[in-house]
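Continuing the batch. This is chain 6 of the set; chains 1 through 5 are on the previous pages. Same settings as before, nothing changed between runs. Recording input and output for traceability.
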Amino acid sequence: MEFFQKRFKVFLVIFVAVIVLAVFGFMAIERLSLIDALYFSVITMATVGYGDIHPVTLSGKLFTIFIVVMGVGTFLGVIANATEIMLNKRENKTRLEKLNMLIGVFFSGVGTRLLADFSRFDPQLEALRKNLIVTNDWSEQDFLKTDKQLQHYGYAIEIHRFDLEQLKDLLMRQRDFLLRLLENPSLLEHESFTQLLLAVFHLIEELACRSELKGLPESDVAHVKGDIRRAYSLLVKEWLHYMKHLKRQYPYLFSLALRTNPFDQGASPIVR
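Output for chain 6:
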């Protein structure tokens, strides 16, 4: 998309430059007024054809040939690139919608459960929870403000209270599901979600490589803790972005997400 936009700008600058040259050229050679010269320049470059006015001097005709050669290709280039940009925007929007569907499937399948499990052993959970009780009244500014606040959050985990065997069982059951998500080519359009999946999958591999998760040395416990923290922080940020997307695009899905908010102790899927 960026390449097409740069190319469009180049064509547009050349097109405007040729228009300006044509206007002043026709004013000087054909003795036309500013409006007539502009009109004459545009219909020449657009290949519409002449009607009430046309070049009458030899110099004017030669200059018109030059403008046609220079301007017609540039004019068509502007139109073609503008069309290409619009088509690419539509295609990107379609791909993004498909990707957001994948993100929704991820949180429905395992993401929300992981958020609930990780946050339960966060000693500073209350500080995080008060910022993530999303409501129907939240605006774009509320999401932006919370996103900035999350950048300074520590995502601590009390690893010794964590049941690593239970976490391993949960993730191993979801391994094939996560692999299928990673294989989706649409992920290339969403770097942050890709990083989240890779972090979760890395955690699966770390836990799967250890036949026994009890009695690990402190150095290894600290290593696993770091992997959990990485996945935890990416989960929280991606969940917030997904909630923002639902609020903007899918109110009925947003309603369910509010009623199953893993950070809301009073959340319930039952509508009351």
